[in-house]
Amino acid sequence: MAAGGPAPAPLGLLDYCERTGACGAVAEVLSARAVVGQGPRETAAVASQRSGPRRVRADASLNFTMMLNAAALGREGGARRDEPLTRQRWRELHDINDAVNRAIIAESDINQFGVTERWSRPLLETQGTRAQARGDCEDYALEKRERLLAAGWAPESVLLAVAELQSGGLHTVVVAHTDRGDFVLDNLRDAPQPVALLDYTWISRQSGPSLSSWSQARLALLAPHSRN
């Protein structure tokens, strides 16, 4: 997935940054908010569509080579921070994606909070309580990103991205940049997916390690390459 020109960060993400202080310097977050302007907000109808995702089940033992070949088709050229994709790293992608999908019950922000968009980490917020973690796509994505960072992935290689589904709803995922292609961690799918295999219309993506810095997103199609 390639970066295009500058794009506004999602308003819900900037609200999360200000609320939690999880996105770096306050001045940087406020500057990013000033760039947002009248960027598209998620409607209540879109949020409602996301409350009950139809998850695509997948075998945890997906063919490693097959997935690498498919991922290479969506690999961005040029300078970027790619994580070496060993079998251990592949297992981390799969296990973290599956574990977070299972740990959070899908529910829209409008149902939980009465607002169309509220980014959060429900597993962190309910830690130490008996409350069940509930959230929608961006909440899954935030948690997966944090777990990948805790596992040693570079911040420049684990980025949030926003796409439009064929149904018309906005959808947030994590994109892991690797030296064998880009993989999407998605709450609608149990296994990481090569970005080129998803029928999503990509809108914007985090650019670099800062959560408040975003760019336009596009799919760059390159021929598969072989590792030396």
Quick rundown:
34% of the residues lie in helices and 19% in strands. The chain contains 8 helices and 9 strands.
Question: Which key phrases capture this entry?
Answer:
9 strands, seven-stranded antiparallel sheet, 8 helices, two-stranded parallel ribbon, 19% strand, alpha+beta, 228 residues
Task: Tell me the distance between the termini.
Answer: 22 Å
CATH architecture call: Roll
Number of helices: 8
The strand order across the widest sheet is 1-9-8-4-5-6-7
Helix-strand pattern: EHHHHHEHHEHEEEEEE
- At the third CATH level, what is the topology name? C8orf32 fold
- Which strand-content bin applies to the residues? 15-25%
Tell me, what's the shape? globular
Number of strands: 9
Oligomerization category of the chains in this entry = single chain
**What CATH first level would be assigned?**
Alpha Beta
How would you sum up the major sheet? 7 strands, antiparallel
Radius of gyration: 17 Å
Average pLDDT works out at 80
Judged by helices, strands and strand pairing, the structural class is: alpha+beta
Low-confidence stretches: 37-54, 58-62, 72-79, 222-228
**What is the number of independent domains?**
1
Roughly what percent helix? 25-40%
